[in-house]
Amino acid sequence: MVVETKLFGFVMLALLMALVVSFLTSPLVKNFAYKVGAIDVPKDARRMHKTPTPRLGGLAIFLGFMISVILFVPIRGDREMQSILMGAVIIVVLGVVDDIMALPAMLKFVVQIAAALIPALNGVVVEAVSNPNIFSNNPYWVLDWLSVPVTVLWIVAVTNSVNLIDGLDGLANGVSTISATTVLVIALIASEAQVALVMAALVGACVGFMPYNQNPAKMFMGDTGSTFLGFILATMSIQGLFKFYAVISFVVPFLILGLPIFDTAFAFTRRIAHGQSPMHADRSHIHHRLIDMGLNQKQAVATLYVISAILGLSAVVLTTGGEGKALILFAALCIVAVVAAKVVFPKEITEELQEGFEQMLDHTHKKGGEEKDG
C-alpha cells in the first residue's frame, strides 16, 4: 500500500513532461489545423459551439504522451508496450485524416479493429474476468480462445465510447483525465511501474491541453484525441486492471470508464429501440440531456466530472477492500445509479421505455401481418 518514493518521483516527471509538451505544442497544432482545413463548423443542433473551431487538438495530446513515454517508460524489448504504441499511432493517423476529411463509419470501424488486433495478438489480452455469479464456486472465467475477440471488442468499444462522449468543451478530456488518474493511483498502490508511468504521461498530456479545450474552447481534440484517449485507456486497463485484479476485474474497469460506457450503451439501446442504426448520430446523449434540463455547458461538464470522479474513487476502494466489499459496493452503486436515473430523468426514462415498447409491438405486428400475407 506504501507508494515507492523513487517510482512516485519518476511518475511526476513523466506527468510534467507530457503536460509541458502538450501545452506548448497546442498553438502549433491549432495553426496546422487551420492550414489543412480541420475546422468544426456548427451546422446542426448536436453541436454546442456557435463559431467555427479548429480540431486536431488530440495531436498535441498524442505528442505530449509519446515524448513522455519514450523518455520515461522502458519499451525496448517490451513487445506488449510496443504493440500498444503501434496501435495508438494507427488510431491517431486515422483520427487526423477523419478530422480533415470525414471518413465513412465502416472504414473507421475496420481500421479500429485492425489497430486493436495489434496489441491483442502480442499478449495484451483479457485472459480472465470475474464471475458475476456470486454463488458459483468458480471465482472467475478463463477465456481461452475467446481472449483475443473479447479484447478486441473491449478496445474498440472503449475507443468509441470516449469518442461519443466528446460533445461539450472539455468533457472527454476531463473524463479521460479522471479515468487515467484512477488507473494511475491503482498502479501506484500496486507498484506497477510501467502502468503508472504510462498513465502519468496520459494525465499530463490531457491537463496540458485543457486550457485550450475548456469552455469556451479555443480548439477541439477531434476524433484524433478522443479515439486515441479511448484506445490508451482500453489497452492500459487490460495491462493494469484485468491482469492484476482478476477476481474483481469484471467491475473495476467498468467503474473507471463507467460514464462513457453507460452513455454509449444507452445511446445504442435508444437508437435500436427507435428502429435506427446504432451509429446514427443524435442529440440525446447524457450531456445533451443535462443542457436541455437548463444547465449551461460548464455546469453540465462539472456534473459529469463529479460522477466520473465518484466512480473512479469507488474503483480505488474496490481494489483495496477485498471481494466481499467489492461486490457489496458494486451492488449498492447499481441501486444508486438506477434511483438517480429515475430522479434525474423520470419523464425521459418513462417516455423512452414506453416509446420503445410500442415500437417493438408495432414491429412484431407488422412482421406477423407480412407472414400471413405471404
TL;DR of this structure?
This protein has 374 residues and is mainly alpha-helical. Helix content is 72%, strand content 3%. Helix 2 packs antiparallel against helix 7 (193-213) and helix 6 (171-189) packs parallel to helix 8 (222-242).
Explain the layout of strands and helices.
Elements: H1 5-36, E1 39-40, E2 53-54, H2 58-72, H3 79-100, H4 105-120, E3 128-130, E4 140-142, H5 147-164, H6 171-189, H7 193-213, H8 222-242, H9 252-256, H10 258-273, H11 286-292, H12 297-344, H13 346-373
Antiparallel strand pairs: 1-2, 3-4
Helix pairs in contact: 1-2, 1-7, 2-7, 2-8, 3-4, 3-8, 4-5, 5-8, 5-10, 6-7, 6-8, 6-12, 7-8
Unreliable runs: none
Assess the beta-strand content as a share of residues: under 5%
Largest sheet, described in full? 2 strands, antiparallel
**Tally of strands:** 4
State the distance separating the first and last CA atoms: 68 Å
Fraction of helical residues: over 70%
Shape from CA axes?
globular
Structural class: mainly alpha
Q: Number of domains in the coordinates?
A: 1
Radius of gyration, whole Å: 21 Å
Strand order of the largest sheet: 1-2
Mean pLDDT equals 79
What count of helical segments does DSSP give?
A: 13
Series of H and E elements? HEEHHHEEHHHHHHHHH
List key phrases describing it:
single chain, 374 residues, mainly alpha, two-stranded antiparallel ribbon, 4 strands, 72% helix
Question: Can you put this structure into words, describing what you see?
Answer:
The radius of gyration is 21 Å and the shape is globular. It is 72% helix and 3% strand. It has one domain (5-373). The chain is an all-alpha fold and 374 residues long. The strands form 2 sheets. It has a two-stranded antiparallel sheet. A two-stranded antiparallel ribbon has the order 3-4.
